[in-house]
Design a protein that fits this description.
With 309 residues, the protein is an alpha+beta fold. It contains five helices and ten strands, in the order ααβββαββαββαβββ. It folds into two domains: 172 residues, 2-Layer Sandwich (HIT family, subunit A), CATH 3.30.428; 112 residues, no CATH class.
């Protein structure tokens, strides 16, 4: 496992199990290793496991394949991999009890395409959205194809006010770490809080016209701007895109408009979504931030902006 830290990055959070309900979500961030990938067949819900939680799930356009093919197992992960978060998914979808000493998770939301678990530390503003397919993380090519479910839309629909697991914080953020900045090897979108200062900064950048309004302009240097993290951590530079909704797969937008045209590596990317929230509530706009260490003062982790504790 690669535990090297970038010299200008905050130390990785290394969590310990908090209770039987937390399971593998007790270790959520940190540096990661490369593993293999998914199976062609989707998981089977049920099998003696917990009862499914009612929730709406958006299937991929046109239905069809919803998991990576066997040919991608070398990069996306194998169903036989020994990863704690993947064990949690298998427990929630098939009732397979995690191997000791790992504890059973609480399966908060269960659908054919994704589940939602507690994050760590366990509280009311820290949750995870995970695919029910075996997908290691952002490096898996399947997630930016038309066959992939829209995991970002699902995370927002559950985290928003009125969702199944609303993030109970004034300002909400969704995020995913790069391959090198994560600790566990099952794709997970963090559903957490962001600081008021982050929300204010993004609204000011929007007012100043310093963000892309079309995905095709996302990688332009004019749409890069620094955003402050925790006190003392300094600014990090992000490519910023404003979107009116999350109907499009953000992994696809990132790959097609930033990664591929600039010969970057998808595995190095971080993605963060911050819904615009004003004094009257959600303003119907999303700020989508991307960064990696190829840009000056860039970062490959979402941990500067998301608040888990």
């Amino acid at each position: 496992m690669n535990d090297q830290k970038n010299a200008n990055e905050v130390p990785r959070r290394q969590f310990v199990a908090l209770s039987g309900a937390v399971g593998a979500t007790a270790l959520l961030t940190g540096a990661a290793a490369t593993m293999s990938t998914p199976a062609a067949a989707g998981p089977v819900l049920g099998g003696g496991g917990p009862s499914p939680h009612p929730s709406c799930s958006t299937a991929p356009p046109g239905g069809g394949v919803t998991c990576p093919p066997v040919s991608l197992q070398g990069v996306c992960g194998s169903p036989t991999d020994d990863d704690p978060l993947w064990h949690d998914v298998q427990y929630c979808t098939q009732g397979i009890v995690p191997p000791p000493p790992q504890l059973k998770p609480d399966c908060l939301v269960m659908t054919p395409h994704y589940i939602i678990l507690h994050g760590a530390p366990r509280n009311t503003h820290n949750y995870l959205t995970l695919p029910t397919c075996r997908i290691t993380g952002i490096e898996c090519p399947f997630i930016h194809t038309d066959a992939a479910p829209n995991y970002w839309h699902e995370a927002w629909e559950n985290a928003r006010s009125g969702g199944n697991v609303p993030v109970q914080a004034p300002y909400i953020g969704l995020g995913i770490n790069s391959q090198g900045a994560r600790r566990l090897q099952q794709l997970h979108i963090h559903m957490a809080a962001v600081r008021e200062s982050t929300q204010r900064r993004l609204q000011q950048l929007e007012a100043d016209g310093r963000m892309a309004t079309q995905p095709s302009a996302w990688a332009d240097t004019a749409n890069q701007a620094p955003v402050s993290g925790p006190a003392g951590s300094g600014d990090r530079v992000y490519r910023i895109l404003r979107l009116p909704n999350l109907r499009d797969n953000l992994f696809t937008l990132l790959y097609q408009n930033v990664v591929r045209p600039n010969s970057l590596d998808m595995a190095d990317q971080t993605l963060i979504v911050v819904p615009k929230i004003t004094s009257t509530g959600f303003a119907g706009t999303f700020y989508v931030l991307n960064s990696d260490t190829s840009i000056h003062d860039g970062t490959s982790t979402c941990d500067y902006l998301l608040v888990y504790r």
